[in-house]
Amino acid sequence: MIYLYALGFSFLLVLLLVPIVRAFALKIGFVDRPTKRKVHSAPIPLSGGLAIYGGVIATTWIFLGNTPILRVLALGGGLLVAIGLIDDAYKSYGREFPIWPRLIVYIGVSLIPSAFGISIAGISAPSRSAMILFSPGWAAFFTLLWVFALINMLNFIDGIDGLASGVCVISAFTLFAASLIGAQNVTALIGVALAGACLAFLVYNFHPARIFMGDAGATFLGFTLAVTAIEGTLKGATLLSLSVPMLALGVPILDTIIVFARRLLEGKGLHRADNLHTHHSLMKWGLTQVQTVTFLYLIAAVFSLLSIVVLLVLR
């Protein structure tokens, strides 16, 4: 029952916060202006990440208390939201924020989970009869790679109305189910808190969007999903169970692989924004925004169901 309460509280809190941050963003001109590579035709407020962050952190604190994972999410997420808001502020004035400050913050934030004891500790055999433990240095390194990748992957797919928030709802519910199966009550609660926050945001973000989460929101979502996956399924995963979080987060992972492959083939910088993402391709083929998002939701749902099947088979 506590999970339903957490889901409802997170949903209602973000539902109330979004109009407040939206009105403030419009008042100060904190908006995403249309460009050639963007699909919206009017300025849209960029402050949604603040509401999502507030909803997830408040819900986690109320229902879990001041736990290590809350401190990780609050500190790391706060830094990501701060640098994301600065980046979004540059965009609102038609300027490009330098990549290096973001890169430094992303790497620093990716080291925070290990500092609080949340890391990928090792890999065990399928039978779990033997486990290869990583040294603290290697554990921190693999954790950094995973967290850094998810921070960027969620940011990459945040290109059309409702995509990142909707995919995050599916992924969060999947990690919730995986946590319940593994009797991981803490990560189960974080999963429903994140799902509730993203569901509420989706009310305002589905096409036609009235607000965007911006880099502040997308990077926070990626960070929260990454940390939840580590604590819930990756701490001492078997070789086969590694597929569970990979499938649960299949859409952003697959999109990133496709985009990076295309950029490499075309000789473009990996960090350069473009219209090579899966959602751009689907819309070029004639799908509307709603059709594109719905199709990618279905793909995410299939990946998520497969991840739960894998987890049940491995038990």
UniProtKB/TrEMBL annotation:
TM stretches of this protein: 6-30, 42-63, 69-91, 103-125, 131-151, 163-181, 187-204, 242-261, 293-314
Binding site for Mg(2+): 155, 215
Molecular function terms from GO: metal ion binding; phosphotransferase activity, for other substituted phosphate groups
Pfam families from the UniProt entry: Glycos_transf_4
Keyword Nuclease assigned: no
Any GO CC annotation of this UniProt entry: plasma membrane
Membrane topology classification: Multi-pass membrane protein
Entry-linked InterPro entries: Glycosyl_transferase_4 (IPR000715), PNAcMuramoyl-5peptid_Trfase_CS (IPR018480)
Highest taxon above the source species: Bacteria
UniProt KW Transmembrane keyword: yes
GO BP terms: cell wall macromolecule biosynthetic process; cell wall organization; lipopolysaccharide biosynthetic process
Listed cofactors: Mg(2+)
Location in or out of the cell: Cell membrane
Alphabetical UniProt keywords: Cell membrane, Magnesium, Membrane, Metal-binding, Transferase, Transmembrane, Transmembrane helix
Full protein name: Undecaprenyl/decaprenyl-phosphate alpha-N-acetylglucosaminyl 1-phosphate transferase
Originating organism: Cohnella herbarum
